[in-house]
Amino acid sequence: MLESVGVSAAEEAAYRGVLANPGCCLLDLARRLDRDVDELGVAVDRLEELGLLTSTADDPPRLLPTRPDVAVDALVAVRRAELDRVRAEARVLLTELRAQEQHRPENLVEVIVGQEAIAARFAQLLNGTKDQLLVLDRPTRPTALRTPVSLRGSTRRCR
What's the CA gap between 86 and 92, in Å, rounded? Predict the structure, then answer.
């Protein structure tokens, strides 16, 4: 579940173990999860770096989990900032494209072939749409103009 925010499956298992047993020490956690202490220590260190765990100053140190909602929100914010930087860099790369290349018709229109590819690209566009998405479509064969049953009585207008 947390892999998309940079937490490996092994690290997530360790985090879940600490959530189930807050205040446990590394040795106790290794026994509960049936994992090597050194291997688990690496995962715990990484979880501390990510802000999912903290260690107490006790001897041996006790592991305390950060609330999942707080920790995951912070990880998502970091990932979002990284993606925003990548998006900005893509715009910088676009300026490197020669001006005459930027405005050539074949570079302004995207042609997608295949029903699955079209559906995937359409879903991607819908997810990224903030205000309006306009689509031009040409039917593969002439069809009679009919209002689908799902749109009858709808106040929405399709153009």
Answer: 10
Average pLDDT for the chain: 82
Helix (H) or strand (E) holding 36: none
Domains and CATH numbers, the chain: 1-103 (1.10.10.10)
Could you give the percent of the chain with pLDDT greater than 70? 81
With beta carbons less than 8 A apart as the criterion, state whether 15 and 47 touch. yes
Higher pLDDT: 108 or 147? It is 108
Whether the pTM exceeds 0.70: the reply is no
Question: CA–CA separation, 137 vs 117, rounded Å?
Answer: 15
Helix axes 37-50 and 26-33, enclosed angle (nearest 10): 110
